[in-house]
UniProtKB/TrEMBL annotation:
Enzyme Commission number(s) from the entry: 3.2.1.23
Descriptive protein name: Beta-galactosidase
Every Glycoside hydrolase 35 catalytic domain range: 11-314
Pfam families listed in its UniProt record: BetaGal_ABD_1 (PF21317), BetaGal_gal-bd (PF21467), Glyco_hydro_35 (PF01301)
Domain Beta-galactosidase 1-like first all-beta residue range list: 521-624
Keyword check for Transcription: no
MF-aspect GO terms: beta-galactosidase activity
Organism expressing this protein natively: Bacillus yunxiaonensis
Domain Beta-galactosidase galactose-binding, chain residue ranges per copy: 768-826
Keywords: Glycosidase, Hydrolase
Length: 869
């Protein structure tokens, strides 16, 4: 039922162009699944792609959950009910900016496990996962009761940098053994028997060349066409990919022969609860929103990219027989400089794609069948010129230089930028009268050939062909701007503020049930906790009152530090860090609070120990090693922010002085490529990936074995590295490490709290606190509900008992989604704020949604015909 050749996919022997929307069922409530699928279909998509996160369904070992918002079978059934094909991507690793790349947190407690490999322990648990998820996919295969047409094996495995043929084959064979019979696909995976896709945003020609070189019998497809991008705490707003750029790249895909596109994302959604992950690097934690700046926003509302793709999909659907049976052909057009062309041909016609690489609009012309056909192309755009395509029994389109959503049985729409012109050369199959209102014009080229010159003004116009049998063909001439006028702006309906707040202090007392006593701090997994918050506390003695530097040899999340129950600061540098603390003579108490900000989802070092995992040490020392580097044999000093170009294998050297310390941790970019006193750094974590080999990578190394007293020499390999932003050394003595710790889960919603009424303007010291408020809501106030945590610090929040995510007021996220399906007439919001800042300016907004999507209707009063043919 599902086959393919070099040109396209076929379903029941009919060629099909795959237009797939990436929609993750796990990033929106079940109550919204139907709406988002309807909008994707209305936008022209014929397929839905989703990852399946293993950890979402097996939160704790052996406890499986496929109910409610986790009912993936229901999601597949909805797709089938709505006539949408499905691409299933079950992993077991999925990346997806999702915690641990979809792997369950508890896997990291298994001794000797090697993730994403043929190591037996890992495969043992993969088999248990496959026993649960593959039968669900099996039931919904197109060959059985559903619409699943492809299943992906693993995900981006070759970009992981550790090829393992046996592992990939094991996964493939495991799916076959569990009755998967639809085609297998991979992206950067390359396993026999699977169709290989690529992932990219631009330069589709390069990816097409790679696919053509490696595969002679497979269609070209992009599994992740990155039309937007995710965002990280403290980073920039990721809205750099404009609708105009999206349109250009879409037509580039057609010009290079792609016949399968999956928009990643089409709808992004939300990282509710604590599911947001961490990409390669140090401070690279995903924000709660996964809006992704794509076609349907986080609140399921169409964007300008939705309109771009809707028009593009209509064009693709019109030319589907051509595009799915096409071959690349030479193009001999004579074009102005900065214009290039690519041409595809098929039995159904041909398309020439003109590309404008200038930053300005260009007017030119092409010759077609002895006729001059003018065209206009916008700056940095791609214009498809359609040639020799039949439009029913009425006429053949010899050349069209305007954009179109397709020529149907009796009507068409041709559009261009407002104020611009386009051309249409037709060969009629029968005689017709022509109604062509000014400012549009036409002329008779030959007895049965007509050349139109359209003007796309602010007011739509209609050109009519009136045939002898009484039938009429209408061509609407419109501007792109008028076609994008379908949506009603989002209207603010209600501001639900101010709220009356109750407050309660977080209980950081370690003298009660639930406290675990350990010799050294444990990471989250070793403690037995998926995410959220952990508290750490220990006592140490000082012989005098003094200032001391406490070194934390291994941390992978920001840490709040208290000494003697007074807040002393936050550790924001990860890997290892240090803080200066005033201690008193005698007994002191060190308390730490850590929020798990997400496990790595894309790096060679997945499975890092979250939280604090090594004992902090007193009387340590921190050195920044960014300065005072020199090329071997040269006296000029360099800073790592401006690394000189070094040819060959000449050393790039620096040194530091060690007096009295026996332990050292090196953290920062470039660490995985450094020698210490002639010995390679012993890596604890190296976030290098195949996509990042040419840049400095973040790593953590224990260099204690290479450390010596006095001068220590560092030799850094800086080939292909132009700058390094962090290179820190932490020195300490093993005997100064603090042992004997108490640990407990913190920031637990269900724990009993002593609530008191919070007074506006309360001045409080930095201390983690809870806030609780109530608000009323009815659907007529709007079904799009957002909360903004103005002037709070960092934490998480719950609405009606459900955790809706982390918040952190360092940007770029400002608004946080509250699903309307969670709300009743009376509602409760609970906030945990790490610094205990007052929630006086927290505000909840409710908005009305866009009006239902409607097709644009053009009502035209036709003037008298210019000329009769």
């Amino acid at each position: 039922m599902i086959t393919y050749d070099q040109k396209s996919w076929k379903i029941q022997n009919q060629r099909i162009f795959i237009l797939s929307a990436a929609i993750h069922y796990f990033r929106l409530p079940r109550s919204e699944w139907g709406e988002v699928l309807d909008k994707a279909k209305a936008g022209g998509c014929n397929t839905i792609e989703t990852y399946i996160p293993w950890n979402f369904h097996e939160m704790n070992e052996g406890e499986w959950d496929f109910s409610g918002d986790k009912d993936v079978a229901h999601f597949f059934q909805l797709c089938a009910d709505k006539g949408l094909y499905v691409i299933a991507r079950p992993g077991p690793y999925i990346c997806a900016e999702w915690d641990f790349g979809g792997l369950p947190w508890w896997l990291s407690t298994k001794k000797g496990i090697q993730y994403r490999s043929s190591e037996p322990t890992f495969l043992q648990y993969v088999d248990k996962y496959f026993d649960q998820i593959i039968p669900i996919i099996d039931e919904f295969q197109l060959t059985k009761n559903g619409t699943v047409i492809m299943v992906q094996v693993e995900n981006e495995f070759q970009s992981y940098g550790k090829p393992d043929k046996q592992y990939m084959e094991y996964l493939r064979d495991g799916m076959i053994a569990r009755d998967i019979e639809v085609p297998f696909v991979t992206c950067y995976g390359a396993v026999d028997g699977a169709v290989e896709f690529r992932n990219f945003w631009s330069n589709s020609k390069h990816a097409a060349t790679i696919l053509d070189e490696r595969y002679t019998d497979q269609p070209k497809g992009v599994m992740e066409f990155w039309i937007g991008w995710f965002e990280q705490w403290g980073g920039n707003k990721a809205n750099q990919k404009t609708p105009e750029q999206l349109e250009r790249e879409c037509y580039q895909l057609l010009s290079n022969g792609y016949s399968a596109i999956n928009y990643y994302m089409y709808f992004g959604g939300t990282n509710f609860d604590h599911w947001g992950g961490r990409t390669s690097g140090e401070q690279t934690f995903s924000i709660t929103s996964y809006d992704y700046d794509v076609a349907l926003d986080e609140y399921l509302q169409p964007t300008k990219k939705y309109e771009v793709l809707k028009r593009y999909h209509a064009f693709v659907k019109w030319l589907e027989p051509l595009l799915t049976n096409a071959e690349q052909a030479s193009s001999d057009l004579k074009l102005p400089s900065d214009l290039t062309s690519q041409r595809i041909v098929s039995p159904y016609g041909e398309v020439t794609f003109i590309e404008n690489n200038r930053n300005e609009r260009i007017q030119s012309q092409v010759y077609h069948n002895h006729s001059l056909v003018p065209f206009t192309i916008e700056a940095n755009a791609v214009l498809p010129i359609v040639c020799n395509v039949n439009a029913g029994n009425y006429f053949k389109i010899e050349a069209l230089t305007g954009r179109t959503t397709g020529f149907g049985s009796d009507e068409a729409v041709v559009y261009q930028e407002e104020g611009q012109r386009s051309s249409l050369l037709l060969q009629l199959n029968r005689k017709a009268d022509i109604d062509c209102p000014l400012p549009n014009q036409f002329e008779l080229v030959e007895e049965d050939r007509i050349a139109f010159r359209f003007f796309h003004g602010s007011q739509p116009q209609t050109v009519q062909l009136l045939f002898e049998d009484g039938s009429t063909y209408c061509i609407s001439i419109v501007s792109r701007q008028s076609m994008e006028g379908n949506s009603v702006p989002l209207k603010k309906s209600t501001s639900i503020a101010p709220l009356k707040w109750e407050t309660a202090d977080e209980n950081l007392c370690f003298l009660r049930e639930g406290v675990k006593e350990v010799e050294k701090p444990l990471d989250f997994s070793s403690f037995g906790q998926f995410s959220g918050y952990l508290g750490y506390e220990s006592e140490f003695y000082s012989s005098e009152t003094k200032e001391t530097t406490i070194v934390f040899p291994r941390i992978e999340d920001p840490v709040m530090v208290f000494c003697n129950h007074q807040f002393v600061g936050k550790l924001s540098k990860l890997g290892a860090s240090s803080i200066d603390v005033s201690v008193k003579q005698g007994k002191n108490t060190l308390t730490c609070l850590v929020q798990n900000m997400g496990r790595y989802n894309f790096t060679q070092s997945i499975g890092e120990p979250k939280g604090i995992s090594e004992a902090p040490a007193l009387s340590g020392k921190h050195l920044s090693l960014l300065g005072n580097w020199q090329v071997e044999g040269c006296g000029v000093q360099h800073h790592l922010s401006q690394i000189p170009k070094i040819d060959g294998r000449i050393g790039f050297l620096s040194s530091f002085l060690n007096v009295g310390y026996d332990s050292a941790i090196l953290v920062g970019e470039g660490v995985s490529r450094v020698n210490v006193n002639g010995k390679p750094a012993k890596m604890l974590m190296d976030n290098q990936t195949a996509w990042g080999k040419s840049s400095a990578v973040y790593g953590v190394a224990d260099i204690s074995d290479a450390l010596k007293q006095g001068e220590n020499v560092l030799d850094l390999d800086v080939q292909n590295i132009s700058n390094i932003r962090r290179f820190d050394l932490y020195l300490f003595n093993e005997r100064e490490q603090i042992h004997g710790w108490k640990m407990k889960s913190c920031a637990q919603l269900h724990e009993e709290k002593k609530w008191t009424l919070s007074e506006n303007g309360d001045k409080q010291s930095v201390y983690p606190r809870w806030y609780k408020g109530h608000f009323s809501w009815t659907p007529d106030q709007g079904t799009i509900v957002k909360v903004r945590f103005n002037h709070l610090s960092k934490g998480c929040f719950w609405v009606n008992g459900q955790c809706l995510g982390r918040y952190w007021n360092i940007g770029p996220q400002e608004d946080y989604k509250i699903p309307a399906s969670l709300l009743a007439e009376q509602n409760e919001i609970v906030i945990f704020d790490e610094e205990g800042l007052m929630p006086n300016d927290v505000v909840i907004h409710s908005y009305t949604a866009f009006a239902p999507l409607q097709e644009k209707q053009f009502v035209i009063n036709l003037p008298t015909s210019q000329k009769i043919l």
